[in-house]
Amino acid sequence: MQVKIADPWKNILQNEFEKPYFKNLIEFVKQEYSNYTCYPKGKDIFAAFDFCSLNDLKVVIIGQDPYHGPNQANGLCFSVKDGIAYPPSLKNIFKEISTDLNQEIPESGNLEKWAKQGVLLLNATLTVKAHEAGSHQKQGWETFTDQVIKQISNEKENIVFLLWGGFAKKKVKLIDKKKHHILESGHPSPLSANRGYWFGNEHFSKTNAFLKSIHKNEIDW
Predict the structure, then answer these.
(1) Which of 65, 146, 176, 220 is catalytic?
(2) N or C: which end of the chain has fewer CB within 10 A?
(3) pTM above 0.70?
């Protein structure tokens, strides 16, 4: 499995690709994809980096695992392919956007349009075995994606990090708070959202207000 990743990203991550843990990880992923059904498709594993250019980066959203049902995962966290029903967390994200920005809920749950505007939709683990949530955790992906967050923190400034839920909030230690803008809330999953930890966080209007304050184009959510 060749790691094909756009040049600006490649430049800041090249050291990781050479490390033993990453070579072991790629070998593990190859074996899993050869022997089982895994998601997303091989060509989409690094889609978060394909659709969001490092040079245009404005916002980072951190997820945990790809969706593990058929035809859902497209390599962007929380996103699904066109024509696929919204999973519960995505439904709650769209509900919050609708209330926060007073706009219609979109027809498609494909978030490529966010990524193209500079939103990195990064899962901590980039692959999963079908119907087995968390099956590719602790194989090296987290080491890699933690390094992605650290490198963004080091190389960029004024990035908005949206940390939703306990897992994402732990990543705060990787981010230089003096250089970046961090917004935290509960997770959009029904369990958290229905307890009042998600709805009303206004993260989408707050993100745009911050981007406007530093003279950057707002995100069309």
Answers:
(1) 65
(2) N
(3) yes
